[in-house]
Amino acid sequence: MSSTLPPPRKKSPTNLRYKSLSPLDKLRAKVYNFKRIIIWYTMFQKIEREATLSELVGRQIQDLIVERQLKPNDRLPAERDLAEQFGVSRTVVREAVRGLAAKGLLEVTPGRGGTIVRLPTAETMSEMMSLFLRGDERTMDYENLVEVRRVLEVAIAGFAAERRTPEDLQEMAHILEETLKVGDDRDHYVKWDLAFHQALARATHNRLFPLLLESVNELMIEVRQLAFRTLGAPARSYRYHKAIFDQVRAGDAEGAREAMRDHLIEAEDTLRKALAMQSQGNASAQASSKRAKRKR
Q1: DSSP label at 103?
Q2: d(CA 210, CA 199)
Q3: DSSP-derived secondary structure letter, 134
Q4: Would the pTM count as exceeding 0.90?
Q5: Cα distance between residue 174 and residue 192, in whole Å
Q6: How many Å separate Cα 82 from the centre of its chain?
Q7: 94 near 76, Cβ under 8 Å?
Q8: CB of 154 closer than 8 Å to CB of 261
Q9: Are 115 and 109 in contact (CB under 8 A)?
Q10: Quick one: the chain helix, strand, coil %, rounded to 5?
Q11: 251: pLDDT confidence band, cut at 50, 70 and 90?
Q12: Paired residues of 106 in beta bridges
């Protein structure tokens, strides 16, 4: 038997060509493939909502920004050039850019250099973190978010206990009073729940903590809306917030950290229950839809 090894597998010329493309050429190739996928789906199956070309173009530019292939102050090519590279109309490009500008990811300066990638702010950090924590199916990566909260908010509680001022305590006390008025108002619950955590971050008197917490605000809104579905969520939230506040007011840093840990453990348990309820609801809806189709 020959011991000669088989020749090494040759790399695909197509893959080599793709790797040598510029980021914008890769972008164009991705959009072309997306367009083909959309056509295939519309021919062979129904889809609930067909993405528009402008959304596809915008999503690809957005991904380049999130992946740092397009960096702050980078300038996009002219509208005409983008349209040509994507193989779409200038109107499609214009709508895509307008959508990204509304999200704060791009800045359009007509007559002064075109469109540039914006420097990150608290709002754009929140948007980009939200995009990063969502998979390709735009579903939230709750596990990563929970880990970030454990590290960030426990530290915030400890520093707040050490550095809070009378004004900080007054603000937190007011927020707790408003939390008692929540009742069945989900938006009210989300607003004041977030407000308490932001007040804690400000009480650290480290300007980076509020910024970091603000960057996950959009994600936390979604988490709290899910949590509200579980029985007694507002009352539980108030009890844990009150326990944290008592430790902060007493100046007990370790006590505040421990109270925050307890709160986050409970919040994670509530989130798991809410996600289970959501999954059961989705399964029931799909089953009902199948039964309805069979009756037709």
Answers
A1: T
A2: 8
A3: B
A4: no
A5: 10
A6: 27
A7: no
A8: yes
A9: yes
A10: 70, 5, 25
A11: very high
A12: 117
Q: Which two tokens stand for residue 246?
A: 């008592």
Nearest alpha carbon to residue 56 among 30, 84, 80: 30
Q: Compute and round to an integer the Cα radius of gyration of the chain.
A: 25
166: Cβ contacts below 8 Å, ≥ 6 apart? none
And the tokens for 227? 């949590």
* pLDDT tens-digit readout, 59-107: 888 888 877 788 888 889 888 888 888 888 999 999 999 988 888 888 8
Distance CA 186, CA 193 (A): 10
What does the pLDDT look like over 226-241, one tens digit per residue? 777 777 888 888 999 9
Q: Using alpha carbons, list the distances in angstroms from residue 100 to 5, 61, 82, 121, 242.
A: 53, 9, 15, 14, 40
Q: Which residues pair with 274 in a beta bridge?
A: none
Q: Which of 236, 258, 235, 264 is nearest to 246 (CA)?
A: 258
Q: Which stretches of 67-185 are DSSP H helices?
A: 79-86, 90-102, 122-133, 142-163, 166-179
Alpha carbons 210 and 231: distance in angstroms, whole number? 30
Residue 46: band (very low, low, confident or very high) from pLDDT cuts 50, 70, 90 = very low
* Exposure of 109 in the CB half-sphere (CA atoms within 13 A): 11
Asked if 78 contacts 84 with a C-beta cutoff of 8 angstroms, the reply is no
Domains and CATH numbers, the chain: 22-119 (1.10.10.10), 126-286 (1.20.120.530)
Q: Are 212 and 156 in contact (CB under 8 A)?
A: no
SS3 56: helix
Q: Which two tokens stand for residue 123?
A: 């709002």
**Which residues fall within 8 angstroms of residue 24, CB to CB, at 6 or more apart?**
77, 82, 85
Angle at 231 between CA 230 and CA 232, to 5 degrees: 115
Give, as one character, the DSSP assignment of residue 7.
P
Strands (E), the chain: 106-109, 114-117
